[in-house]
Design goal:
3 domains, binds iron/sulfur cluster, Aldehyde Ferredoxin Oxidoreductase,  A, domain 1, 6-stranded mixed sheet, alpha+beta, Aldehyde Ferredoxin Oxidoreductase Protein, subunit A, domain 2, Aldehyde Ferredoxin Oxidoreductase Protein, subunit A, domain 3, globular, 27 helices
């Protein structure tokens, strides 16, 4: 149990090999240090996996965690987390999802669910409060994600009562290395944990419950939430751009700033970008916008595909299945996005591997029949990848790193640590380039700190200078880590920028701030080093710590929440170092560091060596990218973690 509100105080552990069901203990001190979500998951993985293991090893864990705000009707707080060792990177991965599963898990009385082992038979798990049952999944095996969920719903004792579900599709069953997990129409997309479920012979988990969640300071909490929702609805990003155009609204600004990855990251501009823009999507295909539960932003596009209303693509999918393969057919992207979801595959990794395969073919390095701009066979290819039919599809299902090992071309294989990059071309947003390189889960824009929001997609600081970028990367990484751990959607953090800065991009103040950002590196580094100077609350711009405080009874503020994020980021790093990662893995494909994006702009490449050196210093890591022993102590990370990365004598 926990003395804190916002938690149920219980974690359920299920061993599929032995079918043993047990409680997994954590203390309130650990809740204070690791909060929830991906950080708590990292702690559980750290405590249980102390050596390099294969992602498909039965010992790999699937750790599904909620945060203290989940289920408490804070804005955008239905998001839950799934972590484990990734088949794509071999390192820790975490993936965030907006389906109902997390809230239902909490309603069943659990803050987290740990699944280990491997079932002999194909099964799904049914959880109803304290009752856990293993059920045969033969009739579900081979089914696509939506059909599986419909069938599971119909099999419930009361089919009218919506059950929380996570499921995999054929891609997960067939161990495609970037298979995802779906909950409703939402995906825990990145890192291939769908294949981990497949390797465990686990098709799905359903959950239903009747427990309530305590809020410690209910009146204060409700008043804050009301104001928070009002603010988000008025903010130009969360109240206008995201509801109106979704993330797809970024296509045009990315084109304007040379950030729109085109032809396998060989350029940042696509002549026909308008055909795949958020504006055209809204005009021609949008049925309505929708959102995850308890979300006032509603960034999701609902579009019609073959007469059926389905979830539309995000910016990353549009960019990578559009400009990055020289495709301007938006209708095809909507269809592929739907197909990839149904078959259970990460759209980003599929698309990134596809563009790489096209370039290999163009260069005569792999005769695979795939050509830039030629899209007539992509539907068939998506099916073949999910079912692993034929050699070309098989390799595409392995991801771009394994393809590059087989056919060459690593210098233009768009991945970091094995995970494919998102659609932001980093040579025109060098801070984002650093973020990609050092991100714990691989080529991820969000885990990399999303510096691009300062470099053209929110504010307009100099895109090409490395100045200040390392400090901001750390600041944003830590904050996003903590916000996610609390249970909120990361889009709520966009509202940290005062509305006038976004609404008036040419005002004197905005232009001054844009100019000042690169020179603020030292000040931000100081705040990173001593978050105590940030012991304040910003109830309007960044209400997350206050909301968590009122819900739980913990005493958090901006600085303390950031410190939790820093702890989480470092713990993930320590796990990755334990799993064999080195500083050499904090890299980018050579194309992005050595070749200019614009021939007449010598700064249009990522000065990674310089950025990395500053970033390691700002983070308090040594030259090999390892958290120093003093940092480990300062962050109150597990006492044995220094020994994990420095050897037994470290303690
Ligand atoms: S902003 Fe979008 S992704 Fe975030 S909770 Fe709302 S609908 Fe879901």
């Amino acid at each position: 149990m926990s003395k804190y509100g916002g938690y149920q105080g219980k974690i359920l552990k299920i061993d599929l090999s032995t079918r043993n069901i047990s409680d997994y203990e954590i203390t309130d001190s650990e809740r204070e240090l690791y909060l929830g979500g991906k950080i708590l998951a990292a702690k559980i993985i750290y405590d249980n996996i102390k050596r390099k293991i294969d992602a498909f090893d039965p010992e790999n864990l699937l750790v599904i965690t909620t945060g203290p705000l989940n289920g408490l009707l804070a804005p955008c707080s239905s998001r839950f987390n799934i972590s484990g060792i990734s088949p794509l990177t071999g390192l820790l991965t975490s993936s965030n999802c907006g389906g109902t599963f997390g809230m239902k898990l909490k309603a069943a009385g659990y803050d987290a669910l740990i699944v280990t082992g491997k079932s002999k038979e194909r099964i799904y798990i049914e959880i109803n409060d304290d009752k856990v049952e293993f059920k045969n999944a033969d009739s579900l095996w081979g089914k696509e994600c939506m059909a599986t969920q419909e069938e599971l719903q119909n099999m419930q004792a009361n089919p009218k009562l919506k059950t929380g579900k996570i499921v995999i599709g054929p891609a997960g069953e067939n161990l495609v290395r970037y298979a995802c997990i779906l909950s409703d129409e939402r995906a825990a997309g990145r890192g291939g944990l769908g294949a981990v479920m497949g390797a465990k012979n686990l098709k799905a988990i359903t959950v239903q419950g009747t427990h309530k969640i305590e809020v410690k300071e209910k009146e204060k909490y409700q008043a804050l939430i009301k104001k928070w929702i009002e603010y988000l609805r008025k903010h130009p990003l969360t109240g206008n751009q995201l509801p109106r155009l979704g993330t797809a609204g970024l296509i045009a600004p990315m084109q304007a700033k040379n950030i729109l990855s085109t032809k396998n990251f060989s350029s940042g501009r696509f002549d026909k970008f308008e055909s795949v823009s958020g504006e055209v999507l809204a005009e021609k295909y949008l049925v309505k916008n929708s959102g995850c539960i308890s979300c006032p932003i509603h960034c999701t596009r609902v579009v019609s595909v073959n007469g059926k209303n389905v979830k539309g693509p995000e910016l990353e999918t549009l960019g990578l299945l559009g400009p990055n393969i020289l495709n301007d057919n938006l209708e095809a992207i909507l269809r592929w996005n739907y197909l990839l979801d149904e078959l259970g595959m990460d759209t980003i990794s599929f698309a990134g591997t596809l563009s790489f395969a096209m370039e290999l073919n163009e260069k005569g390095m792999w005769d695979n029949g795939l050509e830039f701009g030629k899209i007539d066979k992509i539907d068939e290819l998506i099916h073949d990848v999910a079912y692993r039919n034929g050699e070309v599809a098989y390799y595409i299902g392995e991801g771009s790193r394994i393809v590059s090992k087989k056919f060459g071309g690593s210098e233009f294989a768009g991945n970091v640590k094995g995970m494919e990059l998102a659609a932001y071309e980093p040579r025109a947003a060098v801070g984002q380039g650093l973020g990609y390189a050092v991100s714990n889960r691989g080529g991820c824009h969000l885990n990399g700190g999303y510096n691009v929001i300062l470099e053209g997609l929110g504010l307009s600081a100099n895109q090409y200078t490395p100045k200040g970028k390392a400090s901001f990367t750390m600041m944003f990484q830590d904050l996003m880590e903590a916000v996610s751990a609390g249970g909120s959607c990361l889009f709520t953090t966009y509202a940290i920028f005062p509305p006038s800065l976004i609404e008036k991009p040419n005002s004197k103040l905005t232009r001054f701030i844009n100019k000042a950002i690169p020179h603020l590196g030292s000040a931000v580094a100081l705040a990173n080093r001593f978050p105590g100077i940030l012991s304040l609350n910003l109830p309007t711009l960044f209400p997350h710590p206050l909301a968590i405080s009122y819900a739980t009874g913990m005493k958090l503020n901006f600085g303390k929440l950031k410190r939790i994020g820093e702890r989480g980021y470092n713990l993930e790093r320590i796990i990755n170092l334990t799993l064999g990662m080195t500083c050499e893995d904090d890299s980018l494909p050579k194309r992005l560091t050595d070749e200019r994006q614009q021939p007449d702009n010598k700064r249009s490449k990522v000065p990674l060596k310089k950025l990395k050196k500053t970033y390691y210093r700002v983070r308090g890591w040594d030259k090999l990218g390892r958290p120093t022993k003093s940092l480990i102590r300062r962050l109150r990370l597990p006492k044995d973690s220094a020994a994990q990365i420095y050897g037994a004598k470290a303690n």
